[in-house]
Amino acid sequence: MARKPTRAAPAEPPVDETIVAQPDWPALLPNADEQAVARGHWRRIVQEMMSREILSSSNGHALQRLVLAYIVYDRCSREVAATGLVTEANKENSKAIDRLSIYYKAMREAETTAERLEAQLGLSPGRRSKVGKVAKQRRGTAGADQFLGPKG
Fold first, then answer.
1. Angle at which helices 32-51 and 60-83 pack, to 10 degrees?
2. What pLDDT score does 10 carry?
3. Which of 46, 118, 138, 141 could pair with 123 as two cysteines, CB 3.0-4.6 Å apart?
4. What's 129's DSSP letter?
5. Where are the beta strands (DSSP E) in 2-149?
6. Is there a contact between 63 and 20 (Cβ–Cβ < 8 Å)?
7. CA–CA separation, 58 vs 113, rounded Å?
8. Would you say 66 and 118 are in contact if contact means Cβ atoms under 8 Å apart?
9. What is the dihedral of CA 42, 48, 52, 55, to 10 degrees?
10. Alpha-carbon Rg of the chain, whole angstroms?
């Protein structure tokens, strides 16, 4: 039986990194799959913020923290799906009790962090109207600038 030729995934268009450079994902994430996911999240968020004209250079670290919160959430949710919400008590210890999974707790913390950062960056629907556009720097001068003189 002949195998069908597989198509390579289409190359994603490059993101303009003149405002905010993408973090060094290999230095932050050891897993190559997570690095690819992080690049995808970064690309999606930066493109949305650029299209709404709310991206500024001061957003860089908040964007990095948001993407990392997404990655941690995904990691923990996979672990909770595999092992369950409850960590069973050690049967050899008569005083031990069942506990809520540490992965579930970390997943909830990552969710809270992501929600807070999305709101601060103006990405959540309820906060979009509260985030103003980034003022663009003037690059040239107009004839009226000479007539009116310097500001101040």
1. 130
2. 54
3. 118
4. G
5. 86-87, 99-100
6. yes
7. 18
8. yes
9. 0
10. 23
Query: What CA–CA distance (Å, rounded) separates 79 from 104?
Result: 8
Q: What would the two tokens of residue 29 be?
A: 């994430």
Structure tokens given for 90? 């050690």
* pLDDT tens by residue, 76-127: 999 999 999 888 888 888 888 888 999 999 999 999 999 999 999 999 876 5
Please return the burial class of 123, using the count of CB atoms within 10 Å of its CB with bins 0-12, 13-18 and 19+. buried
pLDDT given at position 40 = 96
For residue 98, the model assigns a pLDDT of 83
Query: Looking at residue 86, what is its pLDDT?
Result: 87
Rounded CA separation 91/98 (Å): 10
- Which residue shows structure tokens 């930066």? 46
